[in-house]
């Protein structure tokens, strides 16, 4: 039920964008590509999610820069990534950066994303990911940190 913004960067195969969209669909969060984040006021949101693919063991630079440019002091955030291995360990370094900026990290999610950076001759790795199971896990995670879609109460009329 919290008002949520999801800032993401996804350029390799659109893997992280699929995860971000699934999370937004489940929670009613507003989606924002990292290169449009400068127009956003973190103060307008109760929770902010940051997601990206992983390049050489780190969150994409564009997302890290977008987060660094925001005032996150006292802000509740969550992080998510897609990568060839799907390892949740990649989220640790970025989570630390956000904590240093004064944010409270409410959760972390990771899943595999189709990767043609390695094994390109053999069709890459993690083909087909994120798949339905990954997206359903992403929705479940997002609901656990953000809450469900905002409900507009039905008007109460005369009996
Ligand atoms: C330049 C580059 C470096 C990568 N480095 C890693 C890595 O260190 N570890 C890993 O598991 N996956 C790595 N990957 C795979 C991507 O993290 C993975 O395919 C991710 O899902 C891409 O997300 P996107 O489609 O949202 O951009 C790399 C991909 C690229 C293009």
Concise synopsis of the structure shown:
This protein has helices at residues 15-27, 61-68, 90-100, 132-146, and strands spanning 4-9, 30-33, 47-55, 58-59, 76-83, 104-112.
Written overview of the protein:
The chain has a single domain (4-146), classed as 3-Layer(aba) Sandwich (Rossmann fold). It is 30% helix and 24% strand. The chain has four helices and six strands, in the order βαβββαβαβα. α1 packs across α4 (132-146). The structure holds flavin mononucleotide.
Shape: globular
Roughly what fraction of the amino acids lie in strands? 15-25%
Whole-number tally of structural domains: 1
In the CATH hierarchy, what is the architecture at level 2? Answer: 3-Layer(aba) Sandwich
Q: Sketch the topology as an H/E string, one letter per element.
A: EHEEEHEHEH
- Give the CA-CA distance, first to last residue: 29 Å
The helical percent reads 25-40%
Total beta-strand segments: 6
User: How does the major sheet shape up?
Assistant: 6 strands, mixed
Mean pLDDT level: 93
**CATH top-level class:** Alpha Beta
The poorly predicted ranges are none
Give the radius of gyration: 16 Å
Count the DSSP helices. 4
CATH-defined topology: Rossmann fold
CATH superfamily: Flavodoxin domain
Structural class: alpha/beta
* Attached small molecules: flavin mononucleotide
